[in-house]
C-alpha cells in the first residue's frame, strides 16, 4: 500500500511501479467514481453538501467542495464517511483479483493514516519530501499559500507518516533519484516470501 501527504509524489511513484509490471490501483480514482453522477455516494454527498456543489450536469465541483472540506474538519469527516466505504469495498475486490505471477500489487491511499482503517496490508510505502518543497508543489497546482497550507495541515505530518511506514521513497531529488529508489524497493518487495502481497 502506498500513501503520503499531498504533493509528495504518490502518483509518480505509483506509475513507476506500473513500469515494473506491478498491478496498481489509485484510490483517488475510486473516490472520483463514487461521487460521479451514477456513483454510489453521489446522492449522499448531494444531500449533505447541497445542489450548489454540483454543475448543471450533476458533476461535483471538486474545487468548490475541496475549499469547504479542507477548512472544516466536520465537513471533511462527513465526506470521508460517505465516500470511503465504497473505495474500501472496491479496493478489496481489486486485490481479490490478483493472482500469480503477480508477486504484489500496490494501491495508493492518500488518507490511509487520517481515517479509521479495517484493511490489512503487508507493507506500507510512504512518499515524502521536505515541507517547503511540499508547499511549493501544492501551490503550483494553482492554490494560494493559505489554501495550500490548509490542505497540508489537514493531513498527518510527513514526519509521522515516515515513522509509521515500512518503506519510504523520498521524492525531493531528481526524477532519476526517485526512479532509482522505486527500483530498489521493487526488488526488495519482489523477494517477499508470499504469493501475492498487498
Question: What is the helix tally?
Answer: 9
Query: What is the percent of helical residues?
Result: 40-55%
Radius of gyration: 17 Å
Beta strand count? 5
Q: Calculate the mean pLDDT score and round it.
A: 93
**Strand arrangement, largest sheet?**
1-4-5
Summarize the main sheet.
3 strands, parallel
- Number of domains as seen in the coordinates: 2
Shape: globular
CATH topology of the largest domain: Rossmann fold
Overview of the molecule:
The protein is mainly alpha-helical and 198 residues long. It has 2 domains: 1-23 and 107-191, P-loop containing nucleotide triphosphate hydrolases (Rossmann fold, 3-Layer(aba) Sandwich); 28-97, no CATH class. It has helices at residues 10-19, 27-34, 42-49, 62-69, 73-96, 131-139, 145-153, 158-164, 175-190; strands at residues 2-4, 24-26, 106-108, 125-128, 167-170. Strands 1-4-5 form a 3-stranded parallel beta sheet, sandwiched between helices. Helix 3 (42-49) runs antiparallel to helix 5 (73-96) and helix 6 packs across helix 7 (145-153). The radius of gyration is 17 Å and the shape is globular. The termini are close together.
